[in-house]
Amino acid sequence: MRIDGDGLYLVAGVALLLGAVLPRLLKRYAVSAPIAFLGAGMLLGFVVERGKVSPLAEPKLTEHLAELTVLIALMGVGLAIDRPIGWRRWAVTWRLLFVAMPACVAAMAGLGWLLGLAPALALLVGAVLAPTDPVLASDVQVQGPTTGEGAEPEEDDEVRFALTSEAGLNDGLAFPLVYLAVFAATKGALGDWALEWIAWELIGKSVIGIVVGAVAGRLLGRMAFSAPVPSFRLADSREPVLALAMTLGVYGLAEVLHGYGFLAVFVAAIALRSAERAHDFHEELHSFVEQVEHILTWGVLLLLGVAVTGGLLAPLDLKGVVLGVGLILVLRPLTAWLSLQRTEMRRSERWVTAAFGVRGVGSIFYLAYAGSDFADDLPWLWATIGFTVVLSVVVHGVAATPLMRMLERRRES
Predict the structure, then answer these.
(1) Which of 101, 205, 340, 357 could serve as 350's disulfide partner, Cβ 3.0–4.6 Å?
(2) What is the pLDDT at residue 317?
C-alpha cells in the first residue's frame, strides 16, 4: 500500500488528534508521548513505500525540519526559565556544559577509536550525540514560567532547572565540536586549521550568537512591554506570534552574521524573559511556542518511526550498538555525575540529572548538517544515531515519570 497526497492529510489529521489525546492519556503511566508517536510511526512505516521516507533519501528536508523543531524548542525552554542568569545561580549548568559535555564527547570519541573508527568519524559521533535535547526532554524540564503579580520564581527544583538550562545552551555549543570533526576529516593536519577553529568556530561564532541574542531579546522586550507607542506594546495586545517572529528573526540575523543561531535564540528568550519577569504575557508566549513545538515534534517522531521500519537501522552493527548503549547507560551518566560533585544538589538529584541526557532531534539535525562530509559512512552513521535516539526515547521516556515522582516525594518528606 502507498500513501498518496490525499492520504497524507488523513495521516496528519490522525497524528494531530493523537497528539491532543496521548499526553493526557499517558500522564499517569510510565509511557511518554514520544514513545507512542515513535511506535505509531513504525506502524505507519508498514504502509509507506520502503525507503521512501528516510533521512538518507531526503537529507535537506530532514535538516530543515529538525532545525526548525530545535529552534522552537530553544525559545520555549528559554521562556520557561524563571531564574535570572548568573555565574553562581547557574553553577550546575556551567558544570554540565564545560565539564560534562566535553568529557562525554571525548569519551565517546575514545570509545569509537577503540572500536576501530577513524578519529574524525569517532569525534563526529561524539559531537552529534553531545547535546541534551530540548525537544524530547520536556518531561524532565521546567514546565513553564512563573508569572502573575507577586509571583516568586520557583528555584527549588534544581534537577529540572539544570536539565532545562543545559538543553538550552548545549545545542548551540555542540556546533564547534561538530566543526572540529568536519575539519579533522577535510582539512588535513591539525596544525593547518587549529588556530582557525579556536578563534572563529569556537570563540568568534559563539560571541556573535550571544551578542545578537542578548541585544535582540532586550530590544524586543522593551518594545513588547514598555514601548512609548501603544501599537508596539505587544504585551498589551496579547500577540503570542512575537515568540515565533523573534525565533525566526534572531536565528536568521545570527546566521547572516555568521554566528551560532541556536545560541542566539536561547539567549534572546532569556533576555526577553528578564523584561517584566512576572508579566503573564510570558506564559502566553510559552504556551503558543509549546503548541507549535509539539506539532513539529510529533511530525519528526512519526517520520523517524517510518524510517526505522523502512530500513534505517539495517546498517547498524555491534560498534553502533556499543556506542549507543554506552552513551545512554554509562558515559553520559558517569561524566555528568562527576561534574556535579561538590554542588548543593542532593545525591539522588545528581544521579537523576546525570541520567537524563536525552538524545533526540538535535542529534538528527547535526548529522543531517554535517553528514555530507562523511558520505562513505553515512548509512552507518544514520543507523547508529537513529538507534541511539530510539534507545533514548524508550529508556528516558519510561524512566522519567517514576524518577521525577520519587524526587518530589523525597523533597516533600
Answers:
(1) 340
(2) 95
